[in-house]
Specification:
Oligomer: homodimer
Distance between the termini of chain A: 54 Å
Number of domains of chain A: 3
Chain lengths: 600, 600
């Protein structure tokens, strides 16, 4: 049977040949783990994803949540799937053994999780959001909050949300209007409206814990005046039982073009003045708490984009192998049999392009997950800090590059299926619709690009950028051992060198205060930077493929050769195409910035 | 009120400043027309499109046709809209006065038609398909067929379809299996199954005339054995009244990701052995007939892609002007008011990119329509033949480039609206879904690229290519009169020169019989060729804008300046990015071709 979620051979390649997951078992935190426990967890994830998540992916899309009597109603298949996910422990895959977790490295919890993302993006969102909310309380909540709200989340009885966006404040969080008034008893009364709150209502759990950004009466203006509150759907009594319904009203559901199985809600907090909230951590520090959790969330979003791309790639690959149509250009004799469309050069191009985008960003996503483990478990604080800097730098890429290019991969999957691909009788059009969300939520592409160029590349004197450049150079150096990789290595070296020059020049301009001009083309910068990073990850994979080939396992020959071909595609077809964008960046071209409203 | 279908200033610019529509009134066929009659027709089209087509565009999408008792049921708004279209004469806009038409130039009928395409792609499909079917009968049918089938189509009583695709034969028409047996009485009995037949059933007309490709018993194999048949839903008596139901069964409806208001049908012909068909023209010549009608149909499809892009561009432009969000990078003071998002450089980039793609391909589509007029009304046969050659060459670009880039425009429109753009509460996501069909139907992108490189550029000794090169060179020469255009002209000259060299090299390889290798990267070739063509059309627009500016009409200053800025964007940001693709083509790079099935 062909694999539909992801290639398990490719996952094993990533974990054990590229990212050396086994080395993590040398660290104290993961000492009880082994390749066997890793593979067992992956096997369980695959099985649940295939058997309980994938089968209702289309049904989720065709039967979006309904707003009935003030509540959201889902199709019945969602709860058993999520329950199985919980029972198997994936909600707490990375959490301590003592806290009921599996204490897996994030690399492995992500490797498990991506099976669910591929099988059913919408259903997977409910536990994903809960994990994010739980992590926030774990990191910044007090003991009572952990007892009252976190523990039931860990137990799978309460789910969670992230409630940031308001009707007039999406990307611009500094303009939030939701208010929190002290009630005199240590709690707060929340008042405001939030929109696009995913998982904001559903019947999957006893309670829903909203992590709400709001402003205290004495809040300074802007992002430094945002505080974080726990606002449960139902109040929780001291003994842990559910109390009365909190003043949080489901005002309505949004109807999306894709990702339809996940409720996207409008929530009114405090319409009756009785919405109880609990301050998390210190006043006015809410946004910094959110951002400290962002790396993990954004890896998750990026991985979600990858996995939708992956699902489409595998489906279109299988289709191309099965579907006879036409003949090669030099063999038009209509009395001969039609060939499978995978024989057509342009179909191969569309498959190879998908492979390059999907497997390149899959590698990057897992690399980032492993880096997250480094931030937690490397031996010294200095090493951990250094890992965190690199992860901070890479996060906008991990989130945004797959959101853009794996959406393109989905577009190609539809094209391979032709007219069939355009119908809802086949799954690829849904992947495309689902994936269109990813460049928007958790920080748009534009916001990520400002974060990268305006903040990340220069932070701490460019320390993270220097780290990255060294890693890429080191990779190129190792590639020199393989003469066959020269044609792949050189374009990367060339791009890295020019990108470094252009970056210095741009940072110089930023230092001179030319902020608007310099950041104007930041989206191009993100694209080029992303190509450099994915190019690096492909060269790394190519080195591992050469090493694998050298071992001479005949069974893996095709796999490694395919890796080398995809690396060749990305490094020789895609990477060099960035030089024109670099020229625009280098020239500080103001074509877009200078365009005026009245001229449109 | 802001315009939502297209910019009428831009349409006037195209018609009267770029394409000199008034000059057509010097030709005998159009002598009774004038700018006034042209503008009156456009005004009528705009009014009907705004008042009867646009209002049910979303409803069409949300209530796709239902299969009820063997027939397709549409929402009630479709018929009044189509009726108004018919009553205003747009079905026969280009047809002779004597035949009940308006005898408008195709340039003008297309300029009218595009309003409907922008307002409601799905509803517009019904008359569009009818026009194509009617043109086929008009060109190749006999007098009796014209009397019996064409006249009621002209009268708006019968509608039409194009029935080509079969379950196992989409792009590869040579593998059609539908059969036509002579019945002995001059008619034929048709047997076979067709899929993806748009407009294959609906309640909008008394009868539906299917133009069906099928094979006669003595058909030679392949495309040279395909014949064209008229197969009506209801037989037509000698007196023109409807006879009994023909043996054409609606087997089912396809459910598409977009363009949902148009029925996409599976039709069974002759399940009961009683499907009557009428041979059009000569046996085995059916595909050539189809292809002779292709230019007009493909201009229509390309224009459809443009107009979905146009609608999304205008909507996102208006949204960007209204939506306050955030502040400029150098003015983060949260106590100041938020700016409209059109002030953000990256939003301007996304708007300017849309403008460049949409208005560039809008110009090309109208240019092609005018060229079609030249093929019909230029003075000498030689001139007409020459115009037809150029149109043949440009057709794959006219069809495919907008299908690709105006889809990207729609993607950007969603991005500008952010989370709102992803919901079905706003129209841009529907445009994106609707437009995804265009790179697939009427010949996929890949098929068009093979047509361009494998056939069109070399036909008649490259005569059409030489014509095109001369036109572009001439445009560049005229641009030299404007020093301000130097930076725009040079990238086009550079691209044209290199594309010419690469083309010669590729054609040389084709001559040597290296067919598979040379055509392997044809999709890249189409992209580069398309950029050259659109770059040319932008330079042409830039020249006209400079001329307009020189006239000094203050009211138009912003309009012309915007044209120049969009031209600058396309010619300096987009055109030079093609050189890497040219390098791949020049190197006859076999990365994709060499990829093997087993390596994926």
């Amino acid at each position: 049977m062909s694999e539909t979620l992801l290639s398990s051979r490719n996952l094993a390649f990533e974990l054990y040949e590229v990212l050396d997951a086994e080395a993590l078992t040398q660290r104290e935190r993961f000492a009880e783990h082994s390749r066997e426990t890793f593979d067992a967890a992956i096997g369980t994830a695959r099985s649940i994803a295939e058997n309980l998540f994938a089968p209702h992916c289309r049904k989720n899309d065709e039967n979006e949540p309904q707003f009935v009597d003030g509540a959201a109603v889902l199709i019945p298949e969602v709860k058993p799937a999520v329950d199985a996910f919980l029972e198997a422990g994936f909600l707490n895959a990375s959490r301590d053994f003592e806290a009921g977790g599996m204490q897996l490295p994030t690399l492995l919890s992500q490797a498990c999780f991506c099976h669910f993302q591929s099988a059913n993006a919408a259903t997977t969102s409910y536990p994903f959001l809960t994990m994010g909310a739980a992590n926030l309380i774990e990191s910044f909540g007090n003991e009572e909050q952990k007892q009252r709200f976190l523990q039931p989340m860990i137990d799978g009885r309460f789910f969670g949300t992230m409630a940031l966006t308001e009707p007039h404040a999406g990307s611009s969080l500094s303009d939030l209007r939701t208010r929190a008034e002290p009630a005199g008893d240590g709690t707060y009364r929340i008042k405001g409206n939030k929109i696009f709150i995913s998982g904001g209502d559903h019947p999957l759990s006893e309670n829903i814990v909203h992590m709400v950004l709001a402003k205290l009466p004495d809040a300074p203006p802007g992002v430094k005046g945002i505080s974080l509150f726990i606002v449960p759907k139902f109040l929780v009594n001291d003994d842990g039982s559910l109390g009365k319904r909190n003043d949080v009203i489901l005002a309505g559901l949004f109807h999306k073009m894709g990702w339809r199985g996940t409720t996207s809600t409008a929530l009114n907090f405090g319409d009756n003045g009785e919405c109880v909230g609990y301050l998390v951590g210190k006043p006015h520090a809410g946004l910094s708490y959110m951002f400290q959790m962002m790396n993990e969330a954004r890896i998750g979003v990026g991985m979600g984009a990858v996995m939708l791309g992956y699902a489409g790639y595998l489906y279109s690959l299988e289709y191309a192998r099965q579907r006879p149509q036409g003949r090669l250009p030099d063999g038009k004799d209509p009395t001969t049999a039609q060939v499978a469309i995978i024989e057509h050069a342009d179909v191969r191009r569309m498959l190879l392009t998908q492979k390059a985008y999907v497997e390149g960003s899959f590698d990057l996503g897992l690399y980032a997950a492993r880096l997250f483990d480094d931030t937690q478990t490397l031996a010294t604080e200095e090493e951990r800090k250094s890992a965190l800097e690199l992860l901070d730098l890479l996060t906008p890429i991990v989130k945004s590059w797959p959101s853009d290019y794996c959406l393109k991969a989905n577009e190609l999957a539809i094209q391979i299926l032709g007219g069939h691909g355009y119908t809802r009788e086949y799954p690829v059009e849904q992947y495309y619709r689902d994936n269109r969300l990813n460049p928007i939520h958790e920080g748009t592409y534009g916001i990520q690009s400002l974060d990268l160029l305006g903040r990340k590349v220069s932070m701490n004197g460019g320390a993270a950028l220097k780290q990255l450049v060294k890693l890429v150079q080191d990779c190129c150096q190792r590639a020199e051992a393989h003469e066959s990789l020269t044609a792949l290595r050189e374009p990367l070296e060339h791009l890295l060198s020019r990108l470094s020059t252009v970056t210095l020049s741009l940072l110089g301009d930023l230092m001179k205060g030319k902020v608007n001009d310099t950041l104007a083309n930041s989206a191009l910068y993100l694209k080029v930077f992303g190509h450099m990073v994915i190019g690096w990850r492909w060269l790394e994979q190519a080195i591992r493929a050469e090493e694998g080939l050298a071992k001479g396992d005949a069974q893996d020959h095709d796999f490694y050769t395919g890796k080398l071909q995809a690396a060749r595609y990305f490094l020789t077809w895609e990477v060099p195409s960035m030089h024109h964008d670099l020229a625009i960046l280098e020239a500080k071209d103001d074509t877009c910035l200078a365009m005026q409203d009245a001229w449109f």
